[in-house]
Amino acid sequence: MQKGNIGVTTENIFPIIKKFLYSDHEIFLRELVSNAVDATQKLKTLAATGDFKGELGDLTVRVKVDKENGTITISDRGLGMTAEEIDKYINQIAFSGANDFLEKYKDDANAIIGHFGLGFYSAFMVAKTVDIVTLSYSYKEGAKAVKWSCDGSPEFTLEETERSDRGTDIILHVDEDCKEFLEESRLQGLLTKYCHFLAVPVAFGKKKEWKDGKQVETDEDNLINDTCPIWTKKPSDLKEEDYKKFYRDLYPMADEPLFWIHLNVDYPFNLTGVLYFPKIKSNIDLQRNKIQLYCNQVYVTDSVEGIVPDFLTLLHGVIDSPDIPLNVSRSYLQSDSNVKKISTYITKKVSDRLQSIFKNDRKEFEEKWDDLKIFINYGMLTQEDFYEKASKFALFKDTDNKYYTFEEYQTLIKDNQTDKNGSLIYLYANNLDEQYTYIDAAKNKGYNVLLMDGQLDVPMINMLEQKFEKSHFTRVDSDIVDRLIVKEGQKGEELPHDKQEVLSSLFKGQMPKVKKTEFHVEAHALGENNAPIVITQAEYMRRMKDMASIQPGMSFYGEMPDMFNLVLNSDHRLIKQVLSDAETACAEKLVPVESEIAMLTLRRNELQKAQEGKKDEEIPTAEKDELSEVEKKIEAQKTEKENILNGYAVGNKVVHQLIDLALLQNNMLKGEALTNFVKRSVEMI
After folding, report:
1. So where does ATP get bound (predicted)?
2. Which domain covers residue 642, as residue numbers?
3. Which of 50, 162, 272, 581 has the most CB atoms around it within 10 Å of its CB?
4. Strand order from edge to edge, sheet including 316-320
């Protein structure tokens, strides 16, 4: 028996391996099964080159668990090792068996994943002792079977042992704090996750079947992997159903994909894979981490943020490349030059594929747009080079369910939706039902209205206003229809100012108190056939509040109250009737107040005119005091006028009914106010 110390430069190599080399203990199974596959692939390479002339036989890698004895065994019938090779590749951590092998067989060893040395030592993350029992393929030439053992210290033993067949058994004596890995279900899950597509068959025990009310083992191997997944095949050899079946295998609960891209490139880097466009609705976060990264069919990670552009994390599927290092450190992957090239290539393939579908089958593209939209918008918002390509095939959808490219839509609206300043006004709605009245009013003016109800439409609008020349987006309910697009010389017949004030006072005092909501009441001539009251919300403030809900740095706007305009249509017969009735009913009280206001206003104007052009110090104090006193009296009389009108409006059911109808139309009438509206409606009927 040979004893010795492993050739490491520090006594603390094992704690370092256990704590820092891998981010998760479960990765040990990937490393050890991958090494077994690696050894098998090497033997197949030797057989192909004629350096191994024996029978290959069954090359299945086998994983066994013995819960009673606390062991996990990974067995292969690959190359095996001699005592000298164990000393070189296991005891000398600085070396890697794959490196020497690749150098010798570089033209035939494309499938070698390598890194046997450090990968093997991941075993000590879960095992207190590890045994290697191995016999080299060259045993007929005198190589002996050997057993290597180590308890996690730098000390090891190496001795001859009995073994009749070539290959290697790695036996893990599982540590007390890692007993979870002795559960069959746990190992089955890990093997499925990490070894599902390894290129050599991997068996975990035997298949089981129900018999006499219990599960019993059969003689059939429980194979856990598909050795020839579709991304290793030529697209010409695959049918549409093959791609859909593979997608169902990867994501059993998902809807069918929209379409897919088969990646296959060998210069300037090697890359294969299949990427699917899933049906994406609204919640981005639920769709992330669905791309699986592989290195020669060995699972690397499904956490691809930072490795591929952010918007590509919404794709599903598989990327496989020997140029992606088999390393679990994402920070290492993110800095790797090959990974960056792959990322750029995939972005180009995605945009090319979308462009191709748009050009060749626009009808299909439009049918899938509602699912594609969030994905494409995300890409345009986060990656400038993708925006440049996508702006040629990205679509607007209007409220009539018609689709337009950006350029087509600009041509459609430029004649009728250009304001007096030469700016193109893009009108949009984000809820067809809630904003129906506003949409209808805009259509009656000959305007087209976009439907922008997606999760990313607010930031998209902000970006497009910067990208498009002299263009503004305005939600269709942000103002009365005549002011949405202000044309040259546009004006209407308005009520005299004093009558507008009367109307505003009648309604302002009767507005319900809504938490974090403020109303500004004004009167305008909107046409006798339009609604008596219209509620609008200014585009800027509403958009800022929308942005605050998705952008933490803008939370200030989210805390501000909602501010709405309540616009009274002075042309409508009901508003005219309310005004007429109020003036008649309140005339006796209003006449002296209005007379007093008129007299005070006249005196204020005289004082202001006398003070025009004078410096402050040139105006007598008495005049200043009188002006101040006059202004206070005017405000007091206006307050008195408002109180008179409010007192009348309190008992006017039409005023309350009109307000509630407007609130109801905007989904703002709730609770007690809604109950009172229903009661009042019944009474009035």
Report:
1. 31, 35, 76, 81, 96-97, 168, 330
2. 497-613+620-684
3. 272
4. 259-265, 271-277, 316-320, 291-295, 298-301
Q: How many domains does the structure of the chain reveal?
A: 4
- Packing angle of the helix pair 457-467, 362-382 (nearest 10 deg): 80
In a domain, 368, yes or no: no
168 is in an annotated binding site: yes
Q: Examine residue 7 and state whether it is found in any structural domain, yes or no.
A: no
Report how far residue 300's alpha carbon sits from residue 323's, in angstroms, rounded to the nearest whole number.
12
Indicate if 592 and 450 belong to the same structural domain: no
Residue 76 assigned as binding residue: yes
Q: Is 97 annotated as a binding residue?
A: yes
CA angle 316, 320, 322 (to 5 degrees): 155
Pairing relationship of beta strands 155-160 and 167-174 according to DSSP bridges = unpaired
Q: How many CB atoms lie within 10 A of CB 627?
A: 18
Based on the fold, state whether residues 514 and 438 are members of the same structural domain.
no
The answer on whether 35 is annotated among ligand-binding residues is yes
Residues of the chain with pLDDT under 50: 9-12, 19-22, 94-98, 101-102, 105, 108-117, 285-286, 328
**Residue 468, in any domain of the structure:** yes
DSSP class per residue in 479-498: S-HHHHSPPTT-------HH
Task: Say whether 505 counts as a known binding-site residue.
Answer: no
Contacts for 130 with CB less than 8 Å, ≥ 6 apart: 123, 124, 149, 150, 152, 170, 171, 172, 173
183 annotated ligand-binding residue: no
pLDDT digits (tens, 9 = 90+) for 581-621: 999 999 999 999 999 999 999 999 998 888 888 888 888 88
Q: How far apart are CA 253 and CA 249, in angstroms?
A: 9
On whether 96 is known to bind a ligand per the annotation, the reply is yes
Residue 527 Ramachandran class (φ > 0 left, ψ -120 to 50 alpha, else beta): left
For the entire predicted model, the pTM comes to 0.73
